[in-house]
Every structure is written in C-alpha cells, then in structure tokens.
Amino acid sequence: MRDPYEILGVAKNATPDQIKKAYRKLAKKLHPDLNPGKKEIEAQFKEVSGANDLLSDPDKRRRFDAGEIDAAGQERPQRQYYRQYAQSDDGRRYSGDFAGGDAGFGEDLFAEMFARARGGRGGGGAGGNFRMPGSDVTYSLDVPFADAAIGARKRLTLPDGKTLDVNIPAGTEDRQMLRLKGQGHPGHGGAPAGDAYIEIHVLPHAYFRRKDNDIHLDLPITLQEAVLGGKVEVPTVDGKVSVNIPAGSNTGASLRLKGKGILDQRSKQRGDQYVHLQVILPDDADGTLKEALKDWAASHPYDVRGKAGLG
Questions:
Q1: Are the C-beta atoms of 30 and 38 separated by less than 8 Å?
Q2: Which of 208, 275, 281, 206 is closest to 243 using CA atoms?
Q3: Do residue 219 and residue 291 come from a single domain?
Q4: 100 and 122 share one domain
C-alpha cells in the first residue's frame, strides 16, 4: 500500500482538519455510487478510505509515523536480537540455547518465540496453547443527515474489497463511534477477533440544521401567505407535514413542530423542529403590486424602525 499521506495529497505535518477535507474531497469524487462499474475508480476509493482510516486516528497516525505499523495498519515486528535479549534479566533462560556465543545470530526474537510456540528448536513447545486476540480496526463512514436522524442500515466498503453492514442508530451524532464486536482482525490460536470501530461523519443537509436534538429549517412563504395565513407543506425527516401559517406572519417568526426533531439516545425522547419563516416578495413584472401598495401605504403609515428602537 502506498504512503497514506501521498494518497490523500497532504503533507506529513497536515492538521486533522486538512486530512479530513482532503479525504472528503476525494471520497466525493471517487465514491462507487457515483462511478458504477468503474473498477479502477473503486480501487482508488478503497485506497483513499484506507489512508483516511489510518491518518484520522491519532494513535494509528502516531504509530505509523514512528514506524510501528505499516500503511495497511499492520504491526511491524520489533527487531530485537538474541544478544540484546540474552543479556537482559528476562533473557537468562535463553543464554545456553545457542552455541558460539554472539556468532552472528540475527533471528528476530518474536520469530523465535513463535517457533517455540509451534514446538520448534527444542521439540517440546506447546504450539496449541499459543493464543493472541485479534487487533481492533477503525473505519470512517459518511452518512446522510436524515439517515443519522431516523436510523438506517448502511454498507461500508473496506480497503480490501470486503463489506460491512452497519446499523446506524436513530439520533447518531457527527463523529460518533460505533462498535462492531468481532469484526476486526482475526485472533490466533482460537483467540477472539478484534472489534471494528466505525466513526460516523454526518453529511450536511440542503436545508435541515441540527442543534442539540432539535432541527431547524428556514421556510420561504409568499406575501399572500404571510398576510392572509394558510396551510403549507413543510418537510421533516419523517416526511412532509401540513402546517398552518398564522395571518400576519413576519420574516423571523418561528413555528414549533413538537417531536419532529432528533431522538435522544439516552432519554429516548425526540427533540422538536423549528420552522423559521422567510417572507419572499414576488417578481412584480407588471407593477401591479407596486401600484396597489402605493395606494395602501398612503392611508396606512406605520413606523417599523421606530418600533424597534432604530428610528
């Protein structure tokens, strides 16, 4: 696997925000849903996802920079040689195992330990007793706003081409971490596999905004609806609902839709949706509205700035 910094096109000292922006830019361009049937693009997307998984995790990034793991997130063996180990207190029981003292033995200590576990060198090893749990892995997953709000099941494509089905709980927050038990790297000797941790990135919505467990929406209304009132359809994460616009509504007025917000994962109560009205004037191409307002304004003066203390 290529260097993850090179894959994302960022410098070694890039900030987490720079890494995040670089990944999102590439992910939007290379996502398989936008490039159906293009195997080369799909392979690039997997490579970009793998690089982001490593560099977006502070501990993994530190370990990669230190040479402890490779670009695929796999452990690099710690090179400790026989002489170093035999001269330490922990290595005394190894001191008589080799003839010739320090005659060029360069065996990796861990390779020797594995050989012993398999019954090698002395013939009396207990290979069947060697167990090592699998390591955990971390991935990131972009989730649409509505799916995070009401819950969904999404499929995550891994760098090696495999897939994971992820249940997105209702009310999932941006950068929330989900745990998939036993979906990490396999264990050795019958030990359990590690876990997969999925960091959720909630994508911005075209018109919904989240604040705590409430949803906010700016709703354009006509001059007639503002003056006369009436029923209009308003989008929510559950679908459209009919809302009554009070007569005489101004821009900035808010309507509350109780229980149409985000589910609180602790209390299991939903927040509300706030609809902020915005009065939009029509395109008065023939001047009819302008003339009508001139007549109306002559007999109905009112001082809005003075009322607001700005006069």
A1: no
A2: 275
A3: yes
A4: yes
Walk along the chain (311 residues) and give the pLDDT tens digit of each residue: 689 999 999 999 999 989 988 988 898 888 776 777 788 888 888 888 888 888 988 888 988 888 888 887 777 765 444 444 444 444 444 333 333 344 333 444 444 445 544 544 444 444 456 788 888 888 989 999 999 999 999 999 887 788 999 999 999 999 899 999 998 888 888 889 988 899 999 999 999 999 999 999 999 999 999 999 999 999 999 999 999 999 999 999 999 999 999 999 889 999 999 999 999 998 887 888 888 888 888 888 888 888 778 86
In a domain, 263, yes or no: yes
Q: Tokens representing 50?
A: 């793998």
Q: At what angle do helices 58-65 and 39-55 cross, to 10 degrees?
A: 90
> Based on the structure, what is the number of domains in the chain?
3
pTM of the predicted model over 0.85: no
The whole domain housing 154 covers: 135-204
In a domain? residue 274: yes
